[in-house]
Predict the structure.
Amino acid sequence: MYLFKTIMKQILLFLLFLTLSACSSVTDTKDPDFLNLKPEFSIVLGYINKTEYLPEIESQCAKGHICISLDPPPLKLNIVVEDVIYGDMQSKSVTAYTTSHYGLSTYPEDVYYLFMLKTNGKEIIIPRYSPKEIALDIDEQPTLPMFSIDDIPEWIPCNISHLNKMIEYDGSYEHVLYAIEDFTPEELKEMESFAVISEYSVRIVRGIYLSDIKRYLSKQSC
């Protein structure tokens, strides 16, 4: 009997340990306000070095209805800021919040992005799916690779499409080389002047240097 109680106690302790471990990736931060955002925003170059889930958002459904959310909990991202492209961002490391149907897998760590950072007066919010992956040219300069003349983030305050240039990328760089099966014939035709299209792959050859975007936006009032 004593042996049975001892074994059961050990099992319960083990289950408690597993439960606590499973909760370790969820932060206690309350849900940020994703809706009431102020007009001020910043655009920064940076990468994510830490990710967490927030607790589940409480259901906003009316009484008597059943709601099913296909989203995981909101995401808490810690961003290392490499450069401020637009706006007034002083910190070199910021905590920001966003949502995604695909959860934390949407934004792998240590990948460079162009982030739009908005605020509700307290927290920093990243609009859903707004981060844009950037690519480094052969000299390690950050660029915004483009599939076509219209392939720029809609949240950039000015039309910057005319800033595009031929850029020498490393041909194997993951953000400029794509399988041809990823595109429709119509998309391939639209991309002809911005990519080298072979039988098996599409390699992006035009883009915009982030330094050009920064310089251009500093002189505009869009």
Remarks:
- Confidence is low (pLDDT under 50) at residues 1-25.
- The longest strand covers residues 41-53.
